[in-house]
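Dear colleague,

Following up on yesterday's call, I've attached the two folding results inline so they're easy to grep. Please treat them as preliminary; we haven't cross-checked anything against experimental data yet. The first protein's sequence and structure tokens come first.
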Amino acid sequence: MAVTGSTLVLAAPPASPASPVPARTPPRPQGPYRRLFALPGARGFTAGNLLARLPMGMFGISAVMMIAGQRGSYALAGAVTATGLAATALVAPWTARLIDRHGQARIAVPATLVAVLGSLSLVVCVRTGAPAWTLFASYAATATTPNIGGMSRARWTHLLRDSPGAHHTAMSFEQAADELCYMLGPVLAAFLCSVVLPEAGTLTAAALLLTGMLVFTSCRATQPPVTAGPRRGSPLRALGPLLPLFLATGVVFGSMEISSIAHLDALGLGAASGPVLALQAAGSCAAGLLYGTMRPRGLRTCLLAMAAAMTLPWLAASTGALLPLACALLLAGMATAPTMVTAMSRVHALTPEGRLNEGMTLAVTAIFAGIALGAAAAGSLVDHLGPSTAYALPAAAATVALLLSVAVPPSPVTR
């Protein structure tokens, strides 16, 4: 302390050489998902992606409940939705090709408008008692719905083209988002159709699809550039060895769902079907997010794990108890997400440049075809051999997928 004129000055004593200097705490490293969504524009297009993806799990069950409730015929409802799936298998690859050629915003918005108008037409035709053929025509128009999951994956591939580790995390997130939307979508649709009004599920799904697509396509900065000039290579030819594998994987999904519903109904636990199937989807969602933080595995390794896991529900069904079956389905679901993430990564690697959305849509179409085939085959097995025996079909289909992986070109990922 010193006095200078009329000012009292307080001086701090010099630091002792022995006094420790406080060390700065190093910043905590960001997790892979935090780093992923720190990218400019990533949160915006992901929000639109999730809004537009949720209706994918709503349209089918909403149409069935609306048509069956108003027309009193599940046969008509099933035929209408089956026609819509067949139309999607034909139209979706062409829509995806146009998106790759002309850009996401330029094609996806008008294609979505056509699909939404088809949904609204279906509601009007069902409500007014129009002829049955108008229901088929209206629902077939929804086949123009763009593959929002493929477009989102294409954006991540563009943004992370120089970061394979971050790209793996992004693909894992996309698979988890698929599982989450297909888990919540049917639940939301069933609630709206049964509690609000029969048309509420379809109307809500159409509104979500249009809103989400507008948000998604408004994020222009993250849109993959359109490559000018002639396009070389055919995605169908390049993915030829993979498509049968996706078909077999779809059989796993479709047959597992029908087998579980039939088995629980036979036990007098039909009301538990929704929560038990949601548990399977939740297991896949959680496994997908976890897989995104880990080193990716080879495709055959993942398929081997899935084939082994698919035997668990078959074994658990023989006990005739709910708890073992629920646990088995949870574990089986956890094996599917890593398989799908790794298989989709092979799609990225094999698809010709500039045609990724078309390649992704071909893979999804093969899965949908497998789901339809698996559901039909499982239903036949349930009728002839009983619901417990039908659980052999998912296990067999997973084994077939493993055998088909021999024809897939080797992955650059270390096995």
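Below is the second protein, in the same order (sequence, then structure):
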Amino acid sequence: MHIARTGLGLAAATSAAALAVTALGTAAPAAVPHTLAVPAVAGHTLVHGVSSPLSSEQCQAKWHINCYNPLQYRTAYDLNALYKKGVTGKGRTIVIVDSYGSPTVQHDLDVYSKQFGLPSTKVQVVKWGNVPVFDPKNEDMTGWAGESTLDVEMAHAVAPAAKIILVETAVSETEGTTGLPEMMDAEKHLIDHGVGDVISQSFGATENTFPGFDKGDFSSLKKLRYAFKDADKKHVTVLAASGDGGATDLQLDGKTYYNKRVNSWPSSDPLVTSIGGTQLHLDDKGERVKPDSVYNDYGSGGGGQSHVFTRPAFQNGVKKVVGARRGTPDVSMAAAVNGGAWIYSSYDPTAVGWDVTGGTSEATPLFAGIVALADQVAGHRVGNIQQALYGLSAHHAGRNGVVDVNDGTDNSYQGVTGYKAVNGYDLATGVGTVDALRFVPALAKASRHG
């Protein structure tokens, strides 16, 4: 997925002021200006710089999409009962890694929190390398600032008492290896110094764009795994967005999609939990009016077989689906643009206000919040959750809060046939999504790390 932020093609990393609802292009209402998504992201943005959040009914009337706030998400994912028990992520730390970051991230989180009656939290910013001064006229920087804003606000929405560390790196991540060494160096440094319980990565690059891939030489990619190896040893949970290109993804130019099935890293790494995307169908209270579907509107949840990694042991139980390869995603959360999340940003003085965003780079920080809650319940880091996740799904899934997504929708995209959401594990949504009230304690219990 090209440039990162898994916005890949739409939604989420979609852009500038926040990726706001990436539009259908010509299908969007004429009154809404189209802003070409940046950095290297294909698509348009819609619902940009609105003065205050609207209800889903109002969004439907104005833009023909659903739009959700954190209070609706809390109901949809059954989080409120956990909060009443004091499970809020207190004492836990979520690390978010993005190029450049946002100069207004603390202010924006404060405004976001106040709007919905949530307590805010301190965002600790760590600058890794010589991070350039933010330029609101630089589309690459504003694209990353939108991603940083989305990541921080979504993680906070689920785990309101967790500490958040935003790591800003000095080199923009693009296709191939560019920008990734700096990100991995930053993650390794924090892991080795005991900082952070869960790492949220809303970026990625198509496996095929790494040097040597076409010759069967995967060393340029595998040499970047050192941070994840350390995380595994230190029991730090590592998450990555599965992408917004369905079963395909972007080529090295960051604009053209492959006409075949491909996958992206770090989502495809067996040491990383890959987070896919769903579309929620909620009323204004956050209650489901119908079961979740696969995210596939202005982008599509990434998923498929890795061409670099073979099937890890934790996927042996789903080998009939993944075959001999590592399959993604592992689990999914809200990502559709039609059903996107409201976020607030002010880093771009020409577009201060509220945006609707989507993409698996929304889903990933949402799930990072879930992990932080499980860490609190466990009283320690749950660490690499793969074995536990697939175990909870295979045995009494409903009791364990694993909710299957099986409505037959798929993640086909850009002319490349994807995979359908069927009973059990699939390459569109993984094991499905979660009911936090059941899943959080089940994950905490399944954790083996004391």
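For the second protein, one point worth flagging: The first strand starts at residue 35 and ends at 36.

Best wishes,
A.L.
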